[in-house]
Amino acid sequence: MKGRSKLGLLLLVLCLSLLPSGCIKQDRLYRESRVVMDTITTITVVSPSEEEALRAIDAGFNEIERLEHLLNYFSPESEISRINRSSGIRPVKVSRETIEIIKKAIEISEATGGAFNPAIGPVIRLWGFSRQDRAETIPSEEAIREALRLIDYRKIRINEEDSEVYLEVRGMELDLGGIAKGYAADRAIEVIKGMGIKAALVAVAGDIRGFGLRPNGQPWHIGIQDPRPPDDNPDSVFATLYLRDMAISTSGDYQRFFIKDGKRYHHIIDPKTGYPSESSIISASVIADRGFMTDGLSTAMFIFPPERAITLLESLGVDGVIVDINKRVYLTEGLEGKIKITNRAYRIR
To answer: Model confidence over 211-260: pLDDT tens digits?
Structure first.
């Protein structure tokens, strides 16, 4: 028995002396991308075990896909579509998650004075930016005027006790596209954390949520896409920053748009006019502790002039990077000295 004890101790000492290539496995990055929520979604996990990492990645994707089935504006089977079909008729019983995200959307609407509006569905449907086969046409003024009558988020009624949602006016439609991806990133992170993973990054297109540190002990290094990239490098970035236990979302007029008679018409609609926002902003990134917040606010910032957008973000206690048409970069105070501009065409104002 004594000999066995000495042998076990010797093996332990040898194992420790051979680190990091010895008995204890080192943390590694495991990454996978899939098309979910109609976009490229990438989940990166830090783990010493490939098997553990792949289980966590699968769980994260499964959660995002589950939410997509609930929240997809274009799927007739989704809970959002059932709510929309029953507008002005009857309340609809829905899941806890659908109640939660609608409540969060209304919170952002109130915080931004309606610049973010989850009831914007009738106008979004007119423009059709999310359709693959959309015609590059501008809706008539009359059609937009009629749709604007239906986009009052204050007429969304939530009955938490019975888990029901009711839209008061016939023809109202919820479209949570401006918040769903950030919310999905939040939920995927919570699922991955619950599996004992020490660090992960979930990127649902431009909506990113991370926690923990990379294997080298550094925070996640994030690039912000160049809103006016060169033709030979459409995925280039103009700035980088580090992200630790936070979320970042970027909205841009370059994501879905068409140009007609020399004018750019993009997918970020001003709820007050029914037309694409005409502020001077071409890119808005928001950093906060939750993805649903960064997603909704980055959309809302397009409605404001750059200086006002920065002031609003600071009043809400979150950070942001705003870029105007002249490639001037506006930062909240909390980001000063924490962001690196990598493209000389952009300059901090």
So the answer is: 999 999 999 999 999 999 998 898 899 999 999 999 999 999 988 888 88
What CATH number has the domain bearing residue 87? 1.10.3980.10
Is 178 a domain residue? no
Write the CB contacts of 114 (distance below 8 Å, at least 6 apart in sequence): 153, 271, 272
Q: What domain range includes position 125?
A: 74-167
Are 302 and 312 in contact, with CB atoms under 8 Å apart?
A: no
Q: How far is CA 234 from the centre of its chain?
A: 20
> Cα–Cα distance between 349 and 331 in angstroms, integer?
8
Is residue 197 domain-shared with residue 328, that is, in the same domain?
yes
Q: Flag whether 22 is in a domain.
A: no
Judgement on whether residues 57 and 204 belong to the same structural domain of the protein: yes
Handedness of CA 289, 292, 298, 300 (dihedral sign): negative
Q: Give tens-digit pLDDT for 272-313.
A: 999 999 999 999 999 999 999 999 999 999 999 999 999 999
